[in-house]
Each structure stands twice: as C-alpha cells, then as structure tokens.
Input
Amino acid sequence: MAKSAQRAQAAAEAIRVEPLLGRISGAAGVSLTPAKPAARVSLRANPVDAKTLSKALGLDLPLKPKTSSANAKGRLALWLGPDEWLLIDESGDPMADLKKVRALHSAVDVSHRNTAILVAGTGARATLEAGCPQDLRESAFPVGAASRTVMGKIEVVIYRSGESEYRVECWRSFSDYAFTFLSDAARDCLA
Output
C-alpha cells in the first residue's frame, strides 16, 4: 500500500471518546468517577459449557444469580441470567480468547455500547438506593454481587466491587443521565 493511502486510511480511523471523560462529582461521603475504558462482551451459552468457556477466559464463569468472578488480571464475569454473562476487561480482549472455544456460544462485543460509573464512599449505597429498587444491603447484595436492574428510568448493571464501592454499567447513550442522576442523589443523601 502506498504511503499516501496508508495515511488516508489512518486518518479515517474512528477513535472512541469516552462519554464521561473528565467528569467527576460527588458529595460528602461519596465520589463519582467514570471507569477506565474496557472491553465488554455479552456472552450467552449453555451453562453445561461453562467449564470450557471458563478455561478459555481464565476465570470461572459464575453460575448462581447475583454473583461474579474475577481473575488476577482484572477480568470480570458478571452473572446476568442462567445462560448470560457480562464480561468486563480493562486490559485484555475476551473476544480473542472466546474465538478459540469450540463450545457453542454467542459472544457480542458491546464495548462501544456500554460505559461505567464508579460510585464509592460511605454514602455510595444510599446514593444508589435513591433511584434503584435493588436491595443493596450487605445481607442481600454482598461484595462481589452483580445484578441487572433499573436506576431512575434506565437499565443498569450494578456490581459491588468493595465494601463501599460499586460499578454502575449503563449504555453510553444514557451515561449523562446516569451521571447527573447519581450526582443529584449524592447531594440529596446529605440532606
């Protein structure tokens, strides 16, 4: 390929800009920050093939409702249904790993669709509860729990990553709404 054609091709490549880049918010006891960019895969498969898929992914796919698993490299698998998982990886490529698997499965790269907001601090749970019907008390939603639910008027996936830390996955087209909603909720929780 000629150098001018290579330059034209390079100039035509789209660069994804994170929708919440540079935004921060919060209030006393809670902080809101955009999560790092990540690869995300919607994985559907028969649970009997979970062992084969788990080996390829380098983590055990969770098989129980509201559970998750992670590996040492930071790859997450969130259980969303009996045959559905959301894979999140900030440094690797789950799709490349899944291409090697012979077991029947559906893997769709949804990296372009989703983004995440990290909600942390002593007021994190109260902030999320301001618009989410999910029971987020420790007894019902311990560290490592994950669930697809609603927040305000949008669908989200909430993952509890620490004692007072949550990851809220949402569609990027709703990210401004989600961030503003959480910002307002954080301030309201102080009242």
User: Anything to note?
Assistant: The first strand starts at residue 25 and ends at 27. Residues 34 and 151 are 17 Å apart (CA to CA). The radius of gyration is 18 Å. The first helix runs from residue 3 to 12.
